[in-house]
Structure formats: C-alpha cells, structure tokens
Design goal:
- The complex is a heterotrimer of chains A (about 325), B (about 220) and C (about 550).
- Chain A is of the alpha+beta class.
- Chain A has a five-stranded mixed sheet with strand order 3-2-1-5-8, with no helix packed on it.
- Chain A is elongated and about 95 Å long.
- The relative contact order of chain A is 0.11.
- Chain B has a single domain, classed as Cytochrome c oxidase, subunit III, four-helix bundle (Four Helix Bundle (Hemerythrin (Met), subunit A), Up-down Bundle).
- The two termini of chain B are about 45 Å apart.
- Chain C has about 550 residues and is an all-alpha fold.
- Chain C has one domain: Cytochrome c oxidase-like, subunit I domain (Cytochrome C Oxidase, Chain A, Up-down Bundle), CATH 1.20.210.
- Chain C is built from 16 helices and two strands.
- Chain C has a two-stranded antiparallel sheet.
- In chain C, helix 12 runs parallel beside helix 15.
- The longest helix of chain C has about 35 residues.
- The chains are: A alpha+beta (about 325), B mainly alpha (about 220), C mainly alpha (about 550).
- Chains in contact: A-C, B-C.
- Bound molecules: heme-A (2 copies), dinuclear copper ion and copper (II) ion.
- The site of dinuclear copper ion has 9 residues of chain A, from loops.
Amino acid sequence: MDRLHYFVILTTFVMSTAVGLTAIFFFILYRRRSETQTTPHIEPAPLLEAAFVIIPLAFFLLWWVMGYRTAIGLATPPADAMDIYVQGKKWMWKFAYPGGPNSVNVLRVPSGRPVRLLMTSRDVIHSFYVPEFRVKQDVLPGRYSQVWFQAVEPGRFQILCAEYCGAGHSIMRGEVIVLKAEEYEDWVSAQHRGLATKQDGPPTALDFAPPLGNLVDQGRRLAQEQGCVKCHSVDGSQHIGPTWLDLYGRRERLSDGRIVNVDEGYITESMMDPFAKIVDGFKPVMPSFANKLAGPEVAAIVEYIKSLQSDAVRTGPSEGPAYAPVRGR
Amino acid sequence: MSEAAALPPGEHPARGADPHLAHHFSSLERQVDASRLGMWLFLCTEVLLFAGLFTGYAVYRYSFPIAFAASARTSEIWAGTLNTVVLITSSLTVALAIHFVRTGRQRAAVVCLLITLAFALTFLGIKAIEYTAHFHEHQLPGRYYRFEGVRLPGASMYWALYFLMTGLHGLHVLIGMSVLGVIAWRTSRGYYTPHYYVGIELAGLYWHLVDLIWIFLFPLLYLI
Amino acid sequence: MRQSEEDREKLGAPPAHDSYLTDGTTVMSWLNTRDHKRVGVMFLAAVVFFLFLGGVFALAIRMKLLYPGPFLFDALTYNRLFTLHGVTMIFLFMIPAIPSAFGNFVLPLMIGARDVAFPRLNLASFYVYLAGAVLAIWAMVHGGADTGWTFYTPYSTTTPTMLFPLLLGVFVLGFSSIMTGINFIVTVHTLRAPGVGWMRLPLFVWSIYATSIIQVLATPVLGLTVLLVALERVLQFGIFDPARGGDPVLFQHFFWFYSHPAVYIMVLPGMAVISECVATFSRKNPFGYKAIAFSSLGIAFVGFFTWGHHLFVAGQSVFDNGVFGVLSMFVGIFTAVKVFNWVGTMYRGAISFKTPFAYICGFLFFLVFGGMTGVALATVALDVHWHDTYFVVAHFHFIMVGAVIMAFLAALHYWFPKMFGRTYHEGWGLVAASLIILGFNATFIPQFLLGNNGMPRRYYQYPEHFQALNVASTAGATLLGFGFVIIFIYLLIALRWGPRCEQNPWRSKGFEWLTESPPPTHNFDRIPHITQDPHDYRTHAPSGVYADV
Ligand code: HEA
Ligand code: HEA
Ligand code: CUA
Ligand SMILES: [Cu+2]
C-alpha cells in the first residue's frame, strides 16, 4: 500500500510540475514580439488527442487496479482474526474483549495476529482511525461495521476519530497498545483475575486517556479515595446522600418539585455543582468536586455509578451481536 | 418572460407591433421556443426533486417490505382511486382549455380552466379527509406513530414517506392552482390569442406533470 | 447617435453613447434593472463580499491552529467557524461566483445577444440569492451551526445550534442557482446571433452551458435533502434516524449526489475562463476546440456517477467502492484532455505575460496537482488512509482556491476593462498575483503533508507533533490574505481613477469585445453577423459584421 502511495504521489508531482513548466517554457519560446502579431491556426492531429486520453487513462487505471486490489485485502479479514467489540460514543472509545475484559480508550492487541474490530456507535457517526495502521472505518449508530489489521511490532499507536462528531471530536482519541503475544495473554488472564490495576502503566503519549484499563474499577477506587462513600451507599441504604444503587436511569424528585432523569450529565453536574439541583429529602451539604477531579476521573466515577444496577451488575462481556467469523476471502 | 421594453434606437420599426415580443428576441417564434425550453427544464428539476423521494421510498421499501405492504393496505384505497380519476380528468380539461384558446374560443377555455380548478379543489378535499383519518388513527411519521393495526418496525417510515410525498405533491397542486387561476383570469381578459398562447400551454404542461407524479405515487402508496 | 456608413462595416469603432453604467444612475435603476450586465455586476459585488467573509472565517481557523491545545476560542466556536467558512465559501461564493457574475455579464455578449432569455427571472435569481444569503447570515449572527458544510446526519439532526435557518438558506440559494442555469441553457439555445453555430460558440459558453446542465439536474436533489434534514429536526420524521429504522448513510448518498456534481459547478466555469484567457493571451486559436468543448459535457455527464467516492469508508460495499473509484478516474481523463489542449494552445502562439496569464499558470499547476490528488483519493485503498484528513482539505483547496479562485481572479482582471471601461495597475497586479500564488503554496502544501501524516480534519485540538506544519500553513494564509487585500485596493482605485481604456485593450478576438467597453445597455446597436471562429488570429479582420436581423 505504501508503495502504491509513493508511486501515486510521484506521478502527481511529475505531471503537475511538467504542465506548469511547459507553460513557462512555451512562454519563453513564444513570447509576443509585436502588438499586431498574427499566429497560425493549428489543429491537433487526432493521434495526439488520442494520446491525451490514453496516457493519463493508462496511468489512472494502473493506480486503480493496484488500489482496488489492496482495498479488497483491506476489507476482507482473515478467517483466524480475533474479534474485539468497539463502541464509539461522544467522545470515547470502549473496547470489549472476548471473554470479558473491558477498557476505555485503550485497546490492547497482541502483535502478529490479525484483529478484527466489530464497531458500532451509541450516538452519532464516528470514525475509527489509526494512521500508523492505515485503517479507517466509519462507526455508525444502529449497525455494525468492521475493520481489521495486524500489528507487526509491539508499540503504542494513536487512535483518532476521523468523522466530525461534535465539540469533543478532536479529543476523541485513544491508544492501541500492541503487546507481545505472551504479554497479551498475561494481561488477559490478569484481567480475568481482576488484577488489572497492577499491570497497567499509564500511557505516556496520551494525557486524556484514563490510565487504567477498567473504568469501573478505577471509579470504585476513586469513590473511596475521594470519600464519596462516606455519604453514598452502594447497597441501596440511604445515608447522608442518596444511594447510588440503581441511581443511573432513575427519575429523581428534586426539592423544588421538579423531576430529573439521572443521566451522565446530571451525575456530572451533581459532582461539579451540587447545589444546582438538590434531591428531595436531602440537605445541600455535598461539597463541590469541581477542581478536585480530572475529566477522565469524572468519567470513571460516572461509569462506576452506572455499573451499580441491582438487576444486572454487568461488568463483562460485550454488547454486540455474536458474529460468525468471516471465512476465506 | 414577455415584456415590451423600449426598443433601442433605430431597431426594426416593423417589430414594434407585437406587444408580446420582448426586445431581445428576433421573432415571436424564437421567444415562444425559449419559454417552452425553459419550462421543460423547470419540469426536469421538478422530476429530480421527486426522484429523491422515490429513491428514499425504494430504499426503505427494500429494507422493510412487509411493513410497507401492510401499511399500504391500511391506506384509503377508495380515496386514492377517486383522486386518480379526478386528476386525470382535470388534465383533460386543461388540455381542452388550451385547445379552445388555440381555436379562439376564449369563453370555453375559461370555463374549462375553472372546471380544472374545481377538480383540483376536490382532490385536495379528498386528501384532507384522508389526512384527518390518518391523524385519528395515529398513522403518523416517526415518533408520532401509534397505529395499533400495524406494529412492525418500518411502518412509521412508510407514513413518513407517505406524508412527505403526498404533502409535496399537494403543495404542487396548490401552486398549480394559483398558476391556473392567474391564467384563467388572463384568458378572460383576452390576453391569449390563437397566435400567442404559450402561457396557458406552459401552465398546462405543469399541470400534466402534477398529474403524472400522482400517477406514480398512487400505486406506490396505495396498491403495492 | 448613428454611425457613419463605413464604420458600420468595421466593428472596431461603434458609436459612442451611453454605457450600461451611465444609463440611469439612481439606486432604483440598479435594483430594478433587467439588464444582464447590471445583474452580473451586482452578483460580483455580493460574491466578493462573501469571499471576504469566508476569508475572515478561514483566517480565524488558521489563527487557532497555530497552537495545538485550546487557544483563542473554544471548540464549539471553532466548529462553527469551519462550518460557516465552508458554507459561505461554497454556497455563497463559489457556486454563484463565475457563472452568475461573469457568466451573466459576458455570456450574452459572447453569443451576440441583447440579453439573457428571461431577464426578469435573472433579476429574480439575484434576489433569491440575497434572500438565501440573508437567511444564512441570520443563522450566523444567531450562533451559527456546527455540523460542517456536509450536514451529516444524525449529528445534524441533534445538534442544538442554529442549523434550521442555515439549511433553509441553502435551500433558497439552490433556487437561485437553478434559475441561472435554466436561463443560460435557454439563452444559448435561442439567442445566438447569426453565424454563431454550435461549433462556433466561444469555449466559455460551452463550459457554462455544461455547468448549467449540472445546476438544473443536481440542485433539486440538494434542495430535497436539506429540506428533509430540516423537517427531521423540527418534526422528527425519522427519515435518517437509525433509532426509527432510518439510514444515515442514505443522507450521505443524497448529499453527495448533489455535492459531487456541484464541485464541477464550481470548476467548470473556472475552466471556461481559462479557455478564453489562454487563447487571448497566447493570441492563438484554441488547440483542439472540439476536445475542450465536448470534454465539458463529458465532465458534466460522468460527474453524476462518481458521488460514491466520498463514502469509501462509510460502509459501502467493496464492489461499489471499486465502481465509483474507476468512474472518478474517467472524469479525470476529460480534465486531462482540457489541460493538455490549453498547453497546446500556447504552442506557437504569441504570449504576453499579463496579470491574467500569471493566474493561468497558477491555475494549470494547481488544477493538475489538485486534480491528480483527487484521482489519488479515488484510488480506493489510499483513500482509507487519507479520508477526512488534511490531505482531503488540501486536495479541495488546491482545486477550489488554487484553480477556481485563480480563474476568478483571471476573469476579474481580464474582463475588468470590459465591465468598467478602465484599466488597473499592471505592476501591482503582477505583485499581487505572485504573492497569492506563493502564499497559496505555503498554505496548502503543508496541509498535504499534515494529512499524509494522519492529521484528521475538523480538529480543534491536534497532537503536538503537527504544530510546525500548521504554523507554516498559517503563515502562508496570511500572505494569501495580503495578496487579496492588495488586489482589492488597486481594483477599487482603478474603478474610480483608473485610466480609460480602448474598446479592446487585449486585442482579443473573443466575440464579447465586438461591442464597446463598457457596453451600451442593449449590448449591440445592431446584432453582429459572425463570420469567423472565436479566437481566430490568422488575420486582423474583425470577427463579424453588422447585419439586419
Ligand atoms: C471544485 C472542486 C473540486 C473538483 C473539481 C474536484 C475534483 C475531483 N475530486 Fe474532489 N473534492 C472536493 C472538491 C473538488 N474535487 C471537495 C470540496 C471535497 C471534500 C468534501 C468534503 O468532504 O468536505 C473533495 C473530496 C474528494 C474525494 C473524497 C475524499 C475523502 O473525503 O475521502 C475524492 C475521492 O475520490 C475526490 C476525487 C476527485 C476527483 C477524482 C476529481 C477529478 O475531477 C479531478 C480531475 C482532474 C485531473 C485528474 C487533473 C488533470 C489531469 C492531468 C493533467 C493528467 C495527467 C496525468 C498523467 C499523464 C498521469 N474528491
Ligand atoms: C470555495 C471554497 C473555499 C475557499 C476559497 C477557501 C479558502 C480558504 N480556506 Fe477553506 N474550506 C472550504 C472551502 C474553501 N476554503 C471548505 C468547503 C471547507 C470544509 C469545511 C468543513 O469541514 O465543513 C474548508 C475548510 C478549511 C480548513 C479546515 C478546517 C478544519 O477541517 O478544521 C482550513 C484550515 O486551514 C481552511 C483554510 C482556508 C484558507 C486559509 C483559505 C484562503 O484561501 C482564504 C483566503 C482569503 C482571505 C485571506 C480573505 C481575504 C482578505 C481579508 C479578509 C483581509 C484580511 C486579511 C489580512 C490582512 C491577512 N479551510
Ligand atoms: Cu467521534 Cu469524531
Ligand atoms: Cu467528489
């Protein structure tokens, strides 16, 4: 693919310079000598016109054949590809691995093994883009799209969102961490044992991605560190503040009689500006955490609160439909 | 399109006679040709406007064949059929009006145009009855769809397209009516003559298009 | 007032009488005019205003991009800026720029007509344009929208910004475009002067004719599409809403079905201007007249079948990608034919390097570069990497700024004497031209590199390693801006104080020069009878004689 790329760029350069230079060259050759000069009437030979058509056509078709063959390869994942589910939403990437582990904004893959991503969006169109891998695919709400790649060497590569999706479009970034196959296996089993926190060093190139793989775990830890659980229970009992169990999605009555739907926005607002909306039956005593929590930390706590659902405390497997792996090409 | 602007100095004294001829045309035939061509181009744009909706219909019909078929069965076929008859007849009366102007029977032409207008009104009336029924049944687009009879995914899409297509068509009927109204008034004032009747001819063309579009809408929305 | 007998034979020196500029000088005489020339001039003024407005948005974008992190204004403002930049430049400037301003002015002159076929429709088209512009400006003043000029659903149906009036504005502007298109097609069919057969039409007319066909056939679809989005916003019909079974990609198909042909609405008039200018300044007959003329129609036709190349990574099947890819390449061939024939026109000509010629050279280079990167984008596999990166941004600016604005400026300089009867300062003209060509390269070549390295477009914040190239690009944009300012100043001066010029200062054989500069209200006292092909420089004889029609 990169060879084709150079070939294409090179012809482009050569041709445009050639045309520009010919114009200049003709100017030098055929400068106007007098104001009343006349010129001969020249019609091109049919053969010449044919050449004008055939030469570029030949080049373009060559490009196309090369490009299209590569494109078919790009669109056809190998049969033994490993599946990872991806969910894009404003403005983060969520990854769900076979067998359970989840992560936000950080995608871990083993090197030397084809990986197929099955992607969908929760809200608007996003586009999954890893420049170094030369892959890009739109991620649409209401349907699944797929893309595959095979990382050759361990390393860290940036994930960008390439389809405009609103205010956070340019910071909807993540990172692919390519691990050696053994390391990857270790990581997966560590995840299974719930030891995720130990293994993960913070990504360096990426200040916005949360440092840890499992957002919910991280949220739980932060809630303890920040002292939220002094006032909020997670088991349904009321305390100084309302319980967090089943909080997400609840319709909460406020002291002024209004009803709010508890969503991400409201939860965030409750942390940043607790007095804006006071829950009926509680006192406005909650401190503001506006300058104490960083963006990703807020997200982690929100995710943690969202995970506290009494019917299904579901930390694990992906949400997508079960895809049969694609066979052959 | 027809304006008798002042002639430039020294220009063809003979041409000054015809009040319909605009200064920049060399002859009336040319000018009429120009108007006709302009109208046909305009009709092309209209066709393409509707083509977009037809494409949308095709795409969603392909995605939700059962819901579309089921919904189409719940539409008021009697009303659709009646409306088809009404519109086709009105096309005939417009054609007659043109014929009468050509043969110099202005009176008859005006009558024909008025009959056409009456048909158009009938069409809209029937459409209004249909719309009311759909509103009562909640056969409505998108999130307003609450019809109990058909509860399939895609049924609301049928109604979205139904209202878009018939609505846009209805708008065209309205526009056509105003055009025909003006034309009828002008005819009654003797503006069109057997030699110069391009205005009424073009209005007729427009009306035929409105009719034609309905002939495509009818089977798509009511029959299949 | 009447000419003498021998003058009548020669078209060189028609009688001196009131020009269209002095025939009525009240404001109403302009606002209520039916004269295609006045409509053209009014369009020109409006269009230049919007070029500057769009340019100010562009410079604001570039200023922000000096710095990778948040800077100057917040993300929402930035997103509105590029949306408004795109909408202003495309719908308010580029689409009407050459056809409605210069086309209106010179097309009837070129075919020896007294006016366009429907003068009132023509004036109406200007007012409809103004109405659309007012709606768009109203939307901008009340907060603007943040969807990008492509209005992709479902983002566009959910954003809380002032999208509705903007969509309405675009819808209304579409009508203006359709009216102009219909008018030109009919004019070309019915108002050609005696002797102007189809194979004698100036190449400008051929190209504008092809443009008009696209305007008439593609614009209604855009109208419908923006209307659907607007309805979707107000009534939630669900047409493009996946939650209700709608298909957001269908919107993209609709949008590009218009907007791909629309890029040819923008570039064909540019090519039209270049065809005229190349011939005039090389003083040569167009090399391969038929090839240039028919390739315009070819572009117009094939251009309708390539829209899918914007959807390579949107979930289209690989097969469709391939088909749209190869069709896009065929469009490239028609353009290539034109390019080679223009260069051929210079062969054995008598070239004079005036300001318009400088823009021609710029045009040729930028069109080929921009066009070939377009074909590169149509090479399916490569687009996967380049899609929605600055590579695409650079591609289309190379054509739209590099080529079309060069053509616009060439036209402005070439027909300035025709329109106003005065000449501008040639020295400053060349200075500004070099500044613009230089600044242009400095602005957009770095953007190719940025895109190639993977910087996505519509990015408010970007990874830090892209900063150097972004700064270079901003510097270039500043130069470009200065170039425009210079042009603006010296043309304004020329308008008021420029030396009066003779009827045909370039000694062109284009038919529009057969009448005075500036032309009288009715263009020709007597309709000329054309006896030669346009741009036949074998002799000095005028290309036509007066005839009684
Ligand atoms: C005036 C505007 C204009 C014009 C004329 C073109 C012309 C072309 N464009 Fe461009 N394009 C845009 C404006 C334009 N484009 C815009 C605005 C976008 C982005 C929209 C958005 O997303 O916001 C875009 C995006 C765009 C894409 C999508 C990129 C992406 O989003 O991923 C593609 C993909 O195929 C493409 C292709 C082409 C092609 C094949 C042509 C061809 O017509 C080019 C033909 C010209 C030539 C080929 C040059 C002459 C050739 C020679 C002299 C040949 C000599 C060669 C040899 C001998 C080898 N364009
Ligand atoms: C005809 C179309 C047209 C034109 C002429 C331009 C002209 C320019 N454009 Fe535009 N551009 C688009 C059409 C156009 N653009 C479109 C369609 C998009 C996509 C939008 C989207 O994503 O939805 C886009 C997007 C776009 C971006 C990408 C934004 C992003 O994706 O985040 C950038 C960034 O650099 C840019 C820059 C410029 C610059 C520097 C110019 C310059 O050429 C402008 C030069 C003009 C001036 C500078 C004005 C004249 C002078 C003054 C105002 C006086 C003051 C100045 C000084 C004293 C210096 N454009
Ligand atoms: Cu998500 Cu852009
Ligand atoms: Cu395109």
